[in-house]
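Section 5.1 Outputs to date
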Amino acid sequence: MAAGVAKYNISKLSSHLTNIVVVGVIIARQQPRVFGNKKCPNGQSSTDRAVFNLTLRDSPSDCINVSRWGTVSAIGQEAENFHIGDIVEIFNARVSVRNEESGKFQPFTSSAYNLVVSDDGQINPFTADPAAYKSLLHVPTRPAHDYTILSLVDTKEGKEHLPKAENFLVSVIKVEPVQVINTKDNREVRKQLVRLLDFTAKAVPIEIWDPEYLRMAAEWKPRETVLYIADGLVKWDEFKQCKVISVNSSTLITENPNVPEAMALRHYAKSVPISFSELVHSMSNKLPDLNSITNQMSVQQAKEKIEEGETFTAVINAFLSKLNIDEPQNAVSLRCWHCHQIRKHDENICVSSDCVGKEQVFSATFNVLASITDRTGTLENIRLGGRAADQILGIDADVFLELDEKEVAQVKQKLLLEKWDMKIWVQLSQTQRPAVTLLSCEKPNPHESSARGIAMM
């Protein structure tokens, strides 16, 4: 260390200090941002400047935001060298008082200051023993008990108070494939959905856009990875008509926090039954508004879009070519009223730990597989369940179980002999398996059908 340069802990910083060194582990990192030319006082144009922000921690209770400024090329190159989990030394930073405005776009920190590193400062890798700093990666930045339960997100109530920041302690149960999205200004951005679980809800989605958290999410393991999410943004998704959690510049995620609450949740996540059909059922509570689905497609067009890995809705004019209701015991599942888990018909008790000692109450719900066909092909393995199944089949699941073979055949024949305008919703699972849900079947409007026929000729 150079003469006259002193190392300071984050807790000891003050605005009058100069020639300082601060060592810590990076617990958050934002992408570089570029600022356009500005006129200098002498009237000449300066070169573009760029900044990238880090959040640094050196003790369980102390963290600070760091802004690194420089030329666009220098910042772009330097930002690629540092990621969450790296331990760094900050040389010759200016200690500035944290202001409320800048705090809106960075993670909350314990320090009343920010570190500003300009051209005469440096950020270097720390080369001494990293053990004391690495353990800080598993300490939440908020009290471990300070979090919101997912069941408050997994509801349509309270949307008038959104968006708002909340903390969550959750387990990862599904990591969806990364989607590449083209923006209106011809940029490609990447987005990923990760589905979360806690003791109160399953399959609640969090949207991740930030490249650093996308990099981390690639290593998350379903049922094993637990996250403490500080300041996740809860917002209302107009398309899906549900609440979702989103990661923004203020969000800070701690992987596998070393606290008893996280250990208990990890144990629960490993033992609780979660099937693909249960995830689809959870998503079915967030189905898009039927009135918003107007995009006409053929079966072939829908299959091509599925292969592209897209989530979408569509109206398809087609026949129901297959409806798997011949054996009512297979077409209807029993769902526990308390934990909402699916049970087989020969299981008359719920084995979930949440339901021990409670009255065993089950409700019947459709879980039917169907296929639809038009002149361009057949789309198979479409799920028909919940309230949509009740409406399309014209009968409640409880009543359906009482039908004899002849009555079941009549229900099936009524649907298979007709052509319908079918509204579908497609999502893709982690393994690229399409989850296609049939939302409604309506008799085609004769005028609209004629117009479609003329357009397709």
